[in-house]
Structure formats: structure tokens, C-alpha cells
Amino acid sequence: MDQHLDDFLLSVELDKALENDLLNGDVDDDTDIEISPQYPENLTNLLQQAILDRATDVHIDPFGDKMAIRFRIDGIVHTKQKLAMAEGQRLLNQVKVAAKIDIEKHFVPVESQMRWLTEMGARDIRIVITPAGQRDAAHMRFMTTPEQFTSPESLGFSDQQQQQIRNAMKAQHGLVLVSGSTGAGKSSSLYALASMLELEKKIGVSIEDPIEHDMDHLRQIQVDEDHGLTMYEGLRVVLRMDPDVIIVGEIRDEHSAMIAARAAMAGRLVIATLHSTDSASAVETMHYLGVPYYVLGSTLRMIISQSLVRKLCMNCSTGRKLTQQETELFEHYNMAVPDQVYNSVGCNECGGYGHTDRLGVFEIATIGKDVSKMITHGTSHELIRDTFRSNGVKPVIVDALSKAAMGMASMEEVYQACWLDIAAIEEDKLQKNSDSDLVYNDSYTEELEYTD
Fold first, then answer.
1. 306-345 b/e (C-beta count within 10 Å ≥ 16 → b)
2. Which residue has the higher pLDDT, 402 or 100?
3. pLDDT by residue (tens digit) across 11-56?
4. What is the pLDDT of residue 435?
5. Domain range list for the chain
6. Of 336, 359, 348, 352, the residue nearest 410 (C-alpha)
7. Which of 142, 182, 219, 375 has the most CB atoms at less than 10 Å from its CB?
8. Which CATH code is given to the segment(s) 2-143?
């Protein structure tokens, strides 16, 4: 314990001079939250390496007598290095100083942000410092650059899927939901949908928590609960701003759900994200949050459900034959079985990871008159899902298998992203085998009785 305290006090002494230089203006600082390459070498190197590795997150965590530096790349966590505690604490203090956080403030969660300026442009980084045992830990989220989120193609939307979305948004009123689990890329899809709307010709307003990116021609409002600006209050304000399009960062409670639905009923186009497992379940989630079925039935225009798969490196991926289980999976969904699928390998071009980015895999359900009536009458999500399938709405796993067949993703990624669908298929197989055994046993018993 004494050694830990000595290490910490030493790191504070070393960084106090740095903090004073920064606050006294010895380092250029044109904005309240800005970082430039003039910052300490080890912090500069960390940020540069994270950008080169395409990391979305950097974690600095105390483990024993070491400080671990870990990157999340394409959704997977990689340990990059383990620093001596004093060196790691010094790095963490430099992060605090760069984000304008008091280095002597401990055991209290703190959020801030910083901007990394290089010749290639600016990267916004969100910082969270939180207590971890007797020390602090840090999380750095590298926000997506505009060119990464405004292109529907780069997110994995096919031409046909993009046309479906445009057709649904032509009505210029109603509710479009983007659903999925945490980390499924819903926010990126939200921005991509907004980019399809020609916002320069409309009044577009968003309420977000937080604003992840500035978007041209969109009036963006950030939730600030410390000053009374909740998601609910923000939506109420937005409705008084003459909007044509309202974008809701996340429907998370009954108040925001009801306001979003009422805005859609009042003739606005509302696009929002929601946590749910698939398109049919999104209806149940909205109802659980208090929106009546008759409101959902009259306002819903489209539900997009999505997940993410890692994109294979085109330079080093190698083809292989399908296993029997993989062949049966394609056949189960009435898809053409490809000659081969591809595995990740790793090369210099992808940094040895075997992947170069992530792609969305989607289920896109247009709400037609038949489904609208079913929703209005409170039909179960199982029957709505069956109707989607009858209407040709393909589940997420079909889009994932299509991308695997094209060599864009590995089958391992398909299994990881769509394990619920695959587990359901396996359960059906077991049930059929069980029923078959039951029929066999019954007939065998009848035969014995007849013989007797």
C-alpha cells in the first residue's frame, strides 16, 4: 500500500509542472478542449498508435502493480502494453490534464473530452475517468470521423436496402426506428439515414446524448441533465421549433417514447434508435415504454434491426470449403450455397488483425397496411415476425450470410453476430429429433402389444 502511495505521489509531482505549463499558456490552446502534438511524447505516441490501429476505444486500467493499456479494435479488446505503475499513472495524469481534469481529483467519476489535431484533421475523443479500487482508470472513446458515418455504403447498406429506406422516408412523416443491442452501430446508421434526407431543404433538429458529430444543416441539441435539459424536455422544445425532421439519439424511457410517437402523429418524420433484438420485438419495446398499439400502428413506417460483423482484410483473407453445418445453414434460409467462404489471416496491411473495419448486417422491415393493422390490434410479436417473413423481410442472419458468401465477413463473425438465430435453429432440430424418437417408440410399443 505504501509503495502504491509513493508511486502515485511521484506521478503527481512529475505532472504538476506539466499542468502549470498548460494552464499558464505555455502550450498553445485555442479552445477549451483541445490537444495538439505538442503534448507529452508518451501521450502523443499513445494517440497516434490508437489512430493507426483504428482503435475505437483506449482503456487505461490498474492491474496489480502494472497499468494495462488496451485497445478495442473492430469490437475486440487487445492488450497493447503493460506499464510500471508510476509510468502508467503519469500517462493517466497527462490524459487528465489534456482533458482539463484536475489531476488531484480522485475517487469521483469525471467526464470530459479533448480534440486531437494532426495534419490529417481533428479527432474528438471522449474521456471518462473512474475510480478502480485504490486508483483511477480511464476510458478514451475515439469518435467516428464524418466520412465514416455519412456514407450508407460504408456501413454495409446494399443499394436495394438504401432504396427501401428512401422509399419509407419519402412520406416525410411517421416513425422510423433503428434497433439493436448496445454497440450495434445504431448511431452511425442514424447519421447515415439523416444524410439521405437533403437536410439543406428541410428544418432538421436532433436531440442527442451526447452529440457524437457535427452535421451540416442539422440543428443539434445535446442533453444536459445537470441544467434540466433531459431527453424529454429537449423533445418538447424541438416540437416548438418548426421541424420537418426530428432525430432522437435514443428512446430510453416512456416520456421520450411518447413524445417521439406524438411528433410522428403530428406530421413530422421522426428517426430514432431503440434497444431491441429484432424488428418485431421493437414494437413490443415501444409498447412496453407506454406507447399505445393504435399509435404505433398509425405512425410506424419502417424498423431497421442491425448488428455488426468484422470486415475481412481483402489482402490476406483465404478461402476454404464449407463445413456440413455451414452448408445446412445456407440451405435453411433457401440461399445458394457458395463454393467457399473466407477466413481471416493477418498481414501488414491490416496490422496483423485480419480485419479492416466493421460492417452492419441488417433486417429492414417496411410497415405495410397488413402489419399496421396487426400492430393496431396488439398482435403478438411472434405473429408479426411471421408476417414479416411472409412479406419477404429477411432476418439479419440472411444479410450476414450474404456478406460471408461475398467474402466480406467470415462465418465465425456470422455465428457471433447471429448466435440467437442459430441457437433457435439447433433447438428446432433437437425438438424434431425428439418428436421423431417419440413416434418411433410409440409405434414400437404398439407392435409389441399387437404381438402379445
1. bbbbbbbbeebbeeeebeeebeebbeeeeeeebeebbebe
2. 402
3. 444 445 444 544 444 444 444 444 454 678 899 999 999 988 989 9
4. 63
5. 2-143, 147-417
6. 359
7. 375
8. 3.30.450.90
